Amino acid sequence: MKAETRSRLEGALKAKGDLKLVAYIMAGHPSKKRSIEVGKRLAASGIAALEIGIPHSDPLADGPVIQRAGQTALAHGMTVAGAIEVAEAVARDGVPVVLMTYINPVLSYDPRKFAAEAAQAGVAGVIIPDLPIEEAEPITGWIRSASLDTVLMVAPTSPPERIANICSHSSGFVYCVTVTGITGIRKDLPDGVLELLAEVKKHTTLPVAAGFGISRQDHLKALRGKLDAAVVGSAIVDEIERAGDGVSLVRELLKACR
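Request: output the structure for the sequence above.
Response:
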């Protein structure tokens, strides 16, 4: 349930006339050292929060760009413990860090150990896309007991009653998936996304963020005023894959957020 006091994520993402930007990177891509360097640069670029992915061999929600990044990270030896170390190094710079992972790595690591070590590392919250709300406990309870936010996802196919249930159990923010599919760079925002955001905002006072496919200034201009934050992942990871750091892209996108 939502905490009585505002969490770090909630405070960082609640928009006040502008649109907050959340960046995503994959821990260990293209190497552990490089992902820490890139994470620190992004943290200083003006973003409101940073998502750090934990690579997994069966990433159900990830598109080709992030899948390749995860495979590279795994090939270079990235682990759950290593990803927490990446998060700790970046979290020192003050921007809230959210770990995005799947349920199998958490179960294999031990959920209570994972929550405790993530909290010790300064992580602000956790996103687990393949953990449905009906099966979320006791995992989310253990995560919350470590004072971490449990960010839950709403899909375009979620009916109003399910949206209300998800919103009531989320903390930090509510993550709206804009497509019925995987992550990736897309030319246009899908039809119905603004209606989905409006429905979600009926059911929560938490910040509302949208992700999956957001990569362009015109996407952000269309979303500004309709929600609190936008998550950009594949476009940044693609730049990192090309030996960049995503900072120039983020700075350009931030111009459309204000």
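The mean pLDDT is 91.
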